[in-house]
Amino acid sequence: MAGDPHSDGPALQLSLQGLSTPLSEVTFVVVDLETTGTSAHRHAITEIGAVKVRGGEVLGEFGTLVNPGTSIQPQITALTGITNAMVATAPPLASAYPAFLEFAGLDRADTVLVAHNAPFDVGFLKAAAATLGYDWPQPLILDTVTLARRSLRGQVPNHRLATLARYFGAATTPNHRALDDARATVDVLHGLLEQLAPLGVTHLADLPHAADPVPARRRRKSRLADQLPTSPGVYLFVDAAEQVLYVGAATCLRSRVRSYFTAAEKRSLIGPMLDLAHAVRHIECATALEAHVQELRLIAELSPPYNRRSKHPHRQKWLALTAETHPRLTLTRNVPLADVERAIGPFAGRRAGELAAAALTDLVPLRRCTTRLPAAPTATAQACPLLELRKCLAPCLPAAARPAWTHCQSDPVATAVSMLAHTPAALILPTLRQIRQLAEQLRYEEAGQVTARLAAFVRGAARAEQLRPLFAADQIVAARRREGGGWELVVIRYGRLAAVGVSGPGEDPRPLVAHLQATAEPVPAPTRVGGAASAEETGLLAAWLYAPGTRLVEVAGAVPLAVSISGASRHLTLLAGSPAD
């Protein structure tokens, strides 16, 4: 029924299983309401009609007049034929509404609520729920008016229900009575879905964006997902020459790939990629973790033109101390594993690393010059202005030539090593005090700059804290219980995923653990950070290991799999409002 097209629609909630449900298995509840007016807040429902269908078959019908508790105006009676006498003995909304909810089953994940001009009907249904104290079940809503505007452009003079019913040859003529209009809407719905099927609208996951403007040639390519499994894995879009265009990972391959051909996909680079795509290759994986690791490795190996992230994992830089007589901070890709305790990171960009370095040198008077200093200072050496600012102890000068205050300072290198490795709080806490003081003095711009430097340092230090134990571990075997029973098992060697397996519900996982340990990929002990796996892969594994519910089966290594309670990780929550690096 016609009404206010600007009413709020409900939120969309779909389960993972529901995403891949073919439309032939989806239950559609087609509803129509008659009311005393157009406002859900000022007017009332006089009739509810609904038809439940699945796979083209009518499963049931629901129809009832409703006593609105108020008089029906003559112009409404002239439109609908519903009189005050007809509703005088009808059930009130408090009885009719729960009966409709029981019939509709809108709380089921595979049920879709359909209406012609859905904002009007849904607005009244939601208002009724609020009035009667019911929770609105948040079903997926489909509006046949919106679908018709997209799929029948130029084919019909307007999108009224009567016009569309004639166009599709509906068995029932709409007459402004709720059940008859719902029956007519069922035939219109089926006609619209037939129009949209060649454009790739064939599954439940396609419906939320079925009416969105997506080029027809792109929607048709959704067939590329039809033969994909619903298991976790990696997908590769390839062109006609089998060149890989894009690599991604998914928990459900079919659903994820189908989503690329809907209006939900808004990334600017993906549209041109889809136009070039000729096929989708896939690699099934045992778990989502394995899929994401394989995705990282394939992106690094193939460097697909339409992937932006993870293409150059070894370009990420660490903030470390140089191996010199008088060390200084440097951003480097090359960190010996033996020196990883003296480094933090990695940082996605150089700017973040520079900010982290500034956070440290603000407090610690490390030298900042890039000149390689001799072991023994020369008699003619001259210090830079940082000495006068007390930001450097001038190791370039002979001891006798340095100011007296420099001899009272603690060793800046030892302090920096401690902050990088074990006690980042020694940097974090005084910097937080500085930020507070600046804010109290209304020096907000300076406070923001110091906060940005601190945020970069804390994030880099927290990453390093989580990665170091994995870099050093000969082998980690861990398990996580799967939803529905069984265990997800992994073997990690020097920060690299070496084996993964899944035990079934009720099975003893220990034989599988032994098998995975015996057959896991041999990983030679690396000498440098990233020698066995990219830091991004190790980061994925660390996040999995540290997540609640993970159980350690074995940890073989010199460094315990733990994060200090005084480390940087505990301070991450302070940075919730700071821009990520």
Tell me what the structure shows.
GO terms for molecular function: DNA binding; DNA-directed DNA polymerase activity; exonuclease activity. It is a single chain. This protein has 581 residues and is α+β, with helices and mostly antiparallel strands. It folds into 4 domains: 192 residues, 2-Layer Sandwich (Nucleotidyltransferase, domain 5), CATH 3.30.420; 100 residues, 3-Layer(aba) Sandwich (GIY-YIG endonuclease), CATH 3.40.1440.10; 142 residues, no CATH class; 107 residues, no CATH class. It contains 18 helices and 15 strands. The chain has a 5-stranded mixed β-sheet. Helix 6 runs parallel beside helix 8, helix 7 crosses helix 8 and helix 15 runs antiparallel to helix 16. The longest helix is centred in the last third of the chain and has 29 residues. It is elongated and about 110 Å long. It starts with 15 loop residues before the first helix and ends in a 24-residue tail after the last strand.
